[in-house]
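During the second half of the funding period, the structural biology subgroup turned its attention to how the target accommodates small molecules. The most pressing case was calcium ion, which had performed well in the primary screen but for which no bound structure existed. We therefore specified the complex as follows and requested a full 3D prediction, including the ligand pose.
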Amino acid sequence: MCSSPSKNPQPIRPLVIAHRGASGYLPEHTWVAKAYAHALGADCLEQDVVLTRDDVPVVFHDLILEEVTDVALLFPNRLRADGHWYVIDFDYAELRQLQVHERMKPSDSSPVYPHRFQARLDFKIQSLANELEFIQSLNRSTQRSAAVYTEVKSPAWHRTHGKDLAVSVLRVLADFGYQGPQDAVWLQCFDAAENTRIRFELGSKLKLIQLIGENDWQESTTDYEALRTPAGLQQVARYAQGIGPWIPQIVTWPSLGAAPVFSTLVQDAHAAGLAVHPYTFRADDLPNNAPDALAVHQALFEVAGVDGLFTDFSDVTLSYLKALDS
Ligand code: CA
């Protein structure tokens, strides 16, 4: 179907992971956002993946459509009783009719990030297959190899709808040559049971990242409190190559002007042999009380020693790392 991807040219410096593309500048998960992140020099381009009614893996963050598309205008009667339009209730051909736009607050439809791109233009939802072909073609035309960084979203929820998301994602990745531990791909999931299944039952050889949230987010039934302990991290190391924690699980600023306070998570993960790729740096939405973007980067890279960072602003993170290098 496509040429095999180049092997992962692991940079010596930490990885810059373009969170949903260059989403600080363009609507998340659109091709323009991916092309721009590629041009900015991100090492990895992220895909969140969910399934359509006709079983097409598509690159989309939410299970519901209305916060980043015009679904309510085009399909006013296709909402469920809970008031949401679900990706899984639509065929791919229907989803392709939607326009993707910047994220809006469900409460009043105002932009979540007011300074970001606001025009309503003809941006489309893409299948995972189209996205991988797009990235591999960009890698070819620019002679620069960006890796893909693919998330299996809410696998247990998909299973309640009779769908096996992980199998669908692995199949498409394999179609594009992403099959082995050296390939330019990271696979990520919040659900520890699903990661274990991907490794041992489905036999995947891909590099795996165990995402770590807070238990009260209800991302999955995984107990993230237990996972974050040294013993929990040793368990994660049986099936994964790294963890993706939330930045405040590594460092917090207790009050304005206060020095940052660090957990032992990064050193505990490193002791277990795990890489650490926290999420998400946003220049326009810094962690609570953090003084500025530089302080966040210094805390994560120079003090905590993380191995990569999900960033909405690949250029900001890259220029920081390049300055550190020189
Ligand atoms: Ca994600």
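Two results from this model are relevant to the next phase. Residues 46, 48, 151 surround calcium ion (CB under 6 Å). The mean pLDDT is 96.
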